[in-house]
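User: Structure tokens for both sequences below?

Assistant:
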Amino acid sequence: MGDLERELRDLSAWLDTPDPPDVTARVRVRLGTPAPRRRRWRSLAAVALVTLLVAVLPPTRAAIADVVTGLLRFAGVSIATSTAPTPTLPSGTAATLPGQRAVALDEAQRAVRFPIRLPAMLGPPEQVLVADPDATGRYRVATLLYDGGALRVDAFDGHLDLAFHKEVTPPGANWVQVNGDFAVWVDGPHALSYVDRTGGIRREAARLAGSTLIWQDNDVSYRLEGSLTKAEAIEIARSLG
């Protein structure tokens, strides 16, 4: 089984669709053609599943499987599922996100267009950052820092197509659930760079990220990153107030 077929089989488990009627015999009679080979049917089935995924997954969650580039876009994050090597990170300390600054929690709430929700399991953050302001001064990203910055929760406007760019290789990314909804778990360190409002990748802000849980709730996308197990990360995400 190839990587694409395996990924599509995994994704199919998330689709709540009725079983289609078996119309194979009728179609063959009408077309007057012999039964196709098994491999051909497998390829057609894969294409059909991708088409179905694009049709049924809510666009606000930006979950799109791309069979050509091996790219999965979900909750504002672009995950490369191909086996291409990860990019070389810049030497030295990575730059901060565009326009990033530290603010008080109440100021951060006024600075973004979405509600900033705190994980009950973590409590109030040690520090709050906002980043990437638009022309009106409203910020695109809010970050909650814990444990001296080793644990972080990034929140950004879920209506935007991209906010962070990750490049990982299978089986680094796998599907999980947060409150019964679709989510992605990236197990272990991986390259992370920022994608600006124009869709350009800001390599100067690239860094090495830890294990990460990615999900979306109420049109806001979240990244939880730190030295956590998958179970711990999911519990923290579920406690989002």
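Moving on to the next sequence.
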Amino acid sequence: MQYPEHRPVDDALIPPRLSAILVMVLWASCYPLITIGLDFAPHLTFASLRAVTAGSALLLVALCLGKPFPKDRAEWGWIALAGLGMTGLGYFGMFHAAEFVAPGMATVVANTQPIFAAVLAYGLIGERLALRGWTGLLIGFLGVIIVAAPQVFAGNERSTGLGLMYVLLAALGVAAGNVAIRKLANRVDAAMAMGLQLLIGAIPLMIIAVLTEHPRAVVWSPGFIVSLVGLALPGTALAFWLWQTTLRSMPLSKANVFSFLVPFLGITIGALFFAEPLTLMVMIGVVLAGIGVYLVVTA
């Protein structure tokens, strides 16, 4: 049985551009919570707990609201792609890369994701981006490079080929997952789809964690519980729910370009709460990223 490509599932609560920015703020706030949590749990074990907690919360909300499970095999296929790409490969690559690649280089490689997603969206779902939009993507990416440049060229020996491969794998996974979420946006309830994709994506993470780590080594301290709950509920569950509802009314490439703002939002959070400096390079990067976002969303 074929389901229509677009069928309304719920009404937008806030304007899509504002929703996209809010998602990026929530994702940027995850970085300090991850830093706190990794003091108490192995990397992939922590990532698995994050995905399972967030996915279970969203699925519970969907069931309480009486939302149906997907019935079409194509819908399940897109949900599986979102889970294995966005959650599985995305979390695996970024969490593993932490010990192999310097933060600056990781930021640059990870932010190739909007470009990959634009290419995949064109090939898989027929989304076209005008020349103005492609120009904006490149300018926004240049802004990210400028911000990360001091770390990239500092001669940090942590940046290895294996680490870069992990980050690139994560970027490709997230790009493919974003295409799948866009495809699901008007077909499956957001809480149901995102809850299921998080739980599906958690499966390979849990298997690898059991085989390579010591899950019982988690220290269930108040600090870890606070970091896990903050990371899983607002930082993941709410963010993913908002992200799918955003993609109901915005093309993926136009919504995804806001992810160029995540490094700058993270730096701002660091400046406000951890006394990290805001340098001239950061300011130049912010301006370029802002120009890039403007060109894409108005293309």
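User: Anything stand out in the second?

Assistant: Residues 1-10 have pLDDT under 50 and may be disordered.
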